[in-house]
Amino acid sequence: KQEVTQIPAALSVPEGENLVLNCSFTDSAIYNLQWFRQDPGKGLTSLLLIQSSQREQTSGRLNASLDKSSGRSTLYIAASQPGDSATYLCAVKVDTDKLIFGTGTRLQVFP
Amino acid sequence: EAGVVQSPRYKIIEKKQPVAFWCNPISGHNTLYWYRQNLGQGPELLIRYENEEAVDDSQLPKDRFSAERLKGVDSTLKIQPAELGDSAVYLCASSSATDTQYFGPGTRLTVL
Predict the structure, then answer these.
(1) Residue of B6, B57, B103, B108 to mutate, interface with A, max A Cβ within 10 Å
(2) Whole-Å CA distances, A105 to A48, A65, A90, A101
(3) Which of A64, B12, B50, B109 makes the best surface tag, with the fewest CB within 10 Å?
(4) Which among A74, A31, A106 is positioned nearest to B40, based on CA atoms?
(5) What is the pLDDT of residues B23-51, one digit of tens each?
(6) Which chain B residues are within 8 Å of A46, Cβ to Cβ?
(7) What DSSP element (H or E) covers A99?
(8) In whole angstroms, what is the distance from residue B18 CA to residue A42 CA?
(9) Burial per residue of A52-62, b for 16 or more beta-carbon CB atoms within 10 angstroms, e otherwise
C-alpha cells in the first residue's frame, strides 16, 4: 500500500529565506508526483507536476525534484515571501488515475 | 473561465440527519472526483466519475454514502445518516485529458 509522508509538519521562517519541503513515498511505481498549495478555507491549487520519467520541474521561485528510485521529492522555494504562507501537499499518482496525498507541511513566512 | 463550484461552503447538522453536497465541475471536464479531507490530513478519494459512470468507488462507505452524476456534468454526494466521524471537508475536483486536477473550495461539514 502506497504511503506518502511529508516532513516537516510545520515550518516558520523569516521572509527572504530559501527553504526545502520534503516528501517521501513507499512504492516507486508511480505515474507522476504533484505539489499542491492549500490556503485556509480553500481548495487545492496545483503548483508543479513531475512525470515519473522526469527529474525536476521549475515554476518561478519554485523548483521540485523527483528521485523515484529512492521514493523522495523536494520542493524548493527561493526567497520566501509572506504570501507563500499556506499548507503544501504532495501527491503521487498511482493506478490509472488515483492520487495519494501526504499530510502536508504548514508553512508560515513572517515579515 | 469559472473554476469548480461547490455548495454549500459550510454545513452544520446533528448526527443521524441527512446531508447533501453539490459540485459543478469546470465546463468540458469529463472526470469528476470527490475527496474527503480530515483535519490535519491530506485528501482521500471517495469516488471518481468518467462522464456519468462511477469508475472508482472503492473508498466510498456505501452503507451511508451515495453519489450521482446525472448527464455527466453536476454531481451530488449524499450522507444518510451522518455520524460524528463524518465531520471533514468534502472536496470536489475535475480534470480533462491532462493530469492536472482542479479543486473546488470544499464544503466543511460539522456533525454535532
Answers:
(1) B103
(2) 16, 17, 9, 12
(3) B12
(4) A106
(5) 999 999 999 999 999 998 999 999 999 99
(6) 100-102
(7) strand A98-101
(8) 24
(9) eeeeebeeeeb
